Automatic annotation (TrEMBL):
Residues 20-81 form the MIP18 family-like domain. It comes from Aquibium oceanicum. NCBIfam families: PA_CoA_Oxy4. Residues 118-164 form the PaaD zinc beta ribbon domain. Gene3D superfamilies: Fe-S cluster assembly (FSCA). This is Phenylacetate-CoA oxygenase subunit PaaJ. InterPro entries: Fe-S_Maturation_MIP18, FSCA_dom_sf, MIP18-like, PaaD-like, Zn_ribbon_PaaD. It comes from the Bacteria.
């Protein structure tokens, strides 16, 4: 059994490997940026990553789990991924860095109010990720993926996706 400091170093290395996996649907952010990588522990020499799906019907869940497992194996670990469904993921778990990466990529990040009645029923003010204007309109409840809505900025006239609050 490795010493405590050695185990912490292994755990940190394993976390970095798993955390570097990009989201397959939104590759500008990693699973860590999205907050879906819950933890990585070393147990009996096995790196165990715990991942929470963004929502139960997300088609990328298996791809993400396989990519995290592959990243851990590529980093030299025997690996296993466990799906954790409770508590359910919320867009509030997206890191500040992840929100900035979304904005830089041209996707308006979700408001940090997933428990707000206003955000749950689509009554949010969505700022354009390109020019910052709040003068925007929703074109479609669904954008390029089910977790995004499609908007247009009325100031710069550019279309963009908004990562919906969950």
């Amino acid at each position: 059994m490795p010493a405590s400091g050695e185990n912490e170093e292994l755990q940190h290395r394993a976390w970095l490997a798993a955390a570097s996996v990009p989201d397959p649907e939104v590759p500008c952010v990693t699973v860590a940026d999205l907050g879906i990588l819950r933890s990585v522990e070393i147990v009996d020499g096995i790196a165990i990553a715990k991942v929470t799906p963004t929502y139960s019907g997300c088609p990328a869940v298996l791809a993400i789990e396989l990519a995290v497992e592959a990243a851990l194996r590529d980093a030299g670990f025997e690996a296993r991924v466990e799906r954790v469904v409770s508590p359910a993921w919320t867009t509030d778990w997206i890191t500040p860095e992840g929100r900035e990466k979304l904005r830089d990529y041209g996707i308006a990040p979700p408001q940090k109010t997933s428990t707000s009645i206003r955000s749950l029923f689509g009554e949010v003010e969505v700022a354009c990720p390109r020019c910052g204007s709040a003068d925007t309109e929703k074109l479609s409840e669904f954008g390029s993926t089910a977790c995004k809505a499609h908007y247009r900025c009325l100031a710069c006239r550019e279309p963009f996706d908004y990562f919906k609050c969950i």
